[in-house]
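An instance follows:
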Amino acid sequence: MNIPKVVRIQQDFQLPVKTDVEETIHRRIEELGITGKVRPGETVAVGCTSRGIPDYPRVVKAVVSELKALGLKPFLIPAMGSHGASTAEGQAQFLRNYGLTEDVVGAPIRSQIDVVEIGKSRDLGLSVMVDKLAVEADHIVVCNRIKTHTDFINSFESGIIKILTIGLGKFRGATYYHKAIMRWGFPRVLSDVSSRIVETGKVLFGVGVVENCRNQIADLDVLDTSTFDALLEGESRLLAEYNAITLHLPFEKADVLVIDEVGKDVSGTGMDTKVVGRILKPLISPEPASPKIKRIVALGLTKHSSGSPGMPGLCDFISRKYEQNTNWDSVIVNGLAASMPEFCKKPAVMENDRKAIEAALETIGMYETEEIKLIRIINTGLLEEMYVSTAYLPEIRQRKDIRVLSEPEDIPFDENGDIVPFHL
């Protein structure tokens, strides 16, 4: 089956951009009255995630500078559950890959994988496990992006509440909580555990970042963690902002979705499940009504993935370079920690990108080339522009939210049969 010709399109979108990052962090820390809660010389564990936050070094440096201005002694800790193959060095390397070095942000990285049980949760009686370094510090601060979660829908999803629970829980806590989630669901478990951590009074604040469709900071806030209700209000507000500006695939159906790159920095699953319409935990959450995609092809890993593609089992076909650049031990560790071994399964591996796309086309049913609906994106976080097959043109002509940027053309491949990258 021939690969259909494609056109480049652009979706209409909102593009809010926040430029006063340092000023906002300074002002909000003053408004929250942090000065009265600390003493000079006290230590602060600044939890940083494996997610690709826009301008991550700038955000963390601003936080560190404010903490130092209060006379505190901040240090960075990985707050990423089982990521980085659940090793201290692997998790520290994740932070360095993002540019979070002492020279850049002004605070050292301290990384280990031990946790301390600080008590039981009030609702379910779960053991509340927190990174030992965070427990030993006088205070805790966490930084994370606020966005939808890959596995559930709620007033809070992926953000500060999750990082307090799963992130600071390291491998042991992440594994334990995901088992609980299989029974009681994400919202109840995350609320129960994180509220117990907030009750300790150790969490000074959380920094929530909302990104726009160009991977820029759209908004940022320093969230009040004096009570769980205050944290919930702040995080829910930022999630609503994210939902208002985020982009999705512009069509309800596709025969083949080609994703140039996947990785943990894009989504915990490597690709946003709500963008591709495949949920990770069908046992506890139904798949979205749309989009409906027959075959998903993933061709490579992002620069900052550290060999972690998320959950390969979401794909139907991958290229040889995807396979070779993947740390499969890390994939298994993540899958076990999340109680999702089925998503550690290796998809069909094809010798190059062209063969992977051709294999997907061969398995969608009996269609003429010009009938095939194919979408090609950079990754699920970058959906402003994409290539779509000419079969979509009749629908595009009826819509005002999509612009066609090119004439029909062939998807370009190099001499090795690998796809030529495209950029926004």
